[in-house]
Write a structure and sequence with these properties.
This protein folds into 2 domains: 146 residues, abc type-2 transporter like fold, CATH 3.40.1710; 205 residues, no CATH class. 57% of the residues lie in helices and 8% in strands. α8 crosses α10. A hairpin with a 2-residue loop joins β6 and β7.
């Protein structure tokens, strides 16, 4: 009786000429692979994306900001240093060294590092700072001003964080100078307006240190343009992979209710990979051209050095596409998930494009050393915002594109040659 009522096996149910969905849903094996994979993907993606954006302030790690002391005035009576030197020392000591890396630079060096994307901002002490503060005790009082320079080309969040840190440091400096001034006899005998000004004497002015175009998405156009290149390479590579497998008879073609299977073409794994990579190299040309047409010509994105941008865009798209083909050739049907993690899931939060790498946990800074989007964003930023300067990240971008393409070629062909030598062919029986 037990055998009569026993649930039929998966093989027995599958062998029937007409099988209902209800009967298949009762078999656990059908649920295992999609359930485990979809759950893991959802969990890991949630941890990766949210883990990199929730605590930028507490994750700060040596954010580079310039400190420019131009003060050439003589020290005030009773002081050993002029106020510029005092403020510089106070700014550095009042900020945790692990959070901010203050770079003491001259004004020209600071402008150069702003123009090459090496610093997120600058705090500038003017040449007449001490003299202007000293005038507060006289009849011709002028309020001294510290200038905060931003670098919007490095992204709105990174630039605003640097500006906020600089403004807070300037405010602390103003409070410290105010205590010195209010203790002097001249201020004690002055009118109430002068005493109020002396208590908080320093004004802070914020302005762009290296302006970018109005059609630059407040410094985010480089990120989104790079994302388009990565997606074009990733999606294009997978489209080519599936289309070639269908055309060669290694995958079914199904469009709506129509299903077909082409005769299987006897071709080795290595030759199949070579075919897919060659098609990727050719089709990356129109894909890149259409991306630039949409972004620059139709939408009006600010862009200069167009020949360089076109070449860098093509090579970026090609490098990603080659990587996708290599991973798919090595891992088979799960290769698309693996390449999604390599080029999208791990790359986005470690790109440093929306949130600076100096403001994310250390794991993402480690990924940023080799993850492709970080390298491509640096190159695109250099071209779009920093006059295509090599030291603004363009050289690193080119080097990493070359390394990525070489790694994809080596890995892909080593794996396919290994499979071919082991006799692990893709030939499958034709469906009845």
């Amino acid at each position: 009786m037990a055998s009569d009522r026993a649930r039929p096996s998966w093989a027995a149910v599958s062998a029937r000429s007409a099988v209902s969905a209800g009967s298949l849903l009762r078999h656990g094996k059908l649920w295992v692979a999609p359930g485990v994979l979809s759950g893991l993907v959802a969990l890991i993606l949630s941890l990766l994306y949210m883990g990199g954006v929730l605590t930028p302030e507490s994750s700060l790690h040596r954010l580079p900001i310039a400190l420019v002391d131009q003060d050439a005035g003589k020290p005030l009576p009773g002081a050993r240093q002029n106020l510029g030197a005092q403020v510089s020392a106070q700014v550095i000591s009042s900020t945790p060294a692990e959070d901010v890396r203050w770079r003491r630079l001259g004004i020209e060096a600071a402008k150069d590092q702003l123009a090459s994307g090496k610093i997120y901002g600058a705090l500038v002490i003017p040449a007449d700072f001490t003299a202007t503060v000293g005038s507060l005790t006289g009849t011709r009082a002028t309020r001294p001003t510290l200038t905060v320079l931003t670098n919007p080309g490095l992204g709105s969040l990174g630039s605003s964080m640097a500006a906020r840190i600089s403004q807070q440091a300037a405010q602390k400096a103003s409070t410290g100078i105010g205590k010195q001034l209010t203790a002097s006899p001249e201020i004690a005998d002055a009118d109430s307006a002068t005493r109020l000004l002396a208590a908080d004497p320093v004004a802070v002015r914020t302005e762009p240190g290296h302006p970018i175009g109005r059609h630059s998405g407040m410094g985010l156009s480089a990120f989104y343009y790079t994302l388009l290149l990565v997606l074009a390479g990733f999606l294009g590579g997978n489209i080519i992979h599936n289309a070639v497998d269908t055309a060669l008879g290694y995958a079914d073609a199904e469009i709506g209710p129509w299903h077909s299977r082409r005769p299987t073409v006897p071709i080795s794994r290595t030759q199949t990979l070579l075919l897919k990579m060659a098609m990727t190299a050719v089709l990356a040309v129109p894909v890149t051209a259409l991306t630039m047409l949409a972004c620059i010509t139709i939408l009006g994105m600010d862009a200069s050095h167009l020949p360089m941008l076109a070449l860098f865009s093509y090579c970026s798209c090609l490098s990603v596409g080659l990587g996708v083909q290599a991973i798919n050739a090595a891992f088979g049907s799960i290769g698309q998930i693996v390449s999604m993690f390599v080029f999208i899931a791990l790359a986005l939060p470690s790109s440093g494009a929306t949130i600076p790498l100096e403001a994310v946990p250390g794991f993402y800074r480690f990924l940023g050393v080799f993850e492709p989007m970080r390298q491509l964003v640096s190159g695109v930023r250099a071209i779009l915002y920093f006059d295509a300067r090599a030291d603004a990240g363009l050289t690193r971008g080119w080097i990493m594109i070359a390394v990525g393409a070489a790694a994809a070629l080596a890995f892909g062909f080593l794996m396919t040659r290994y499979y071919d030598r082991k006799g692990l062919h893709r030939m499958v029986p034709q469906p009845s």
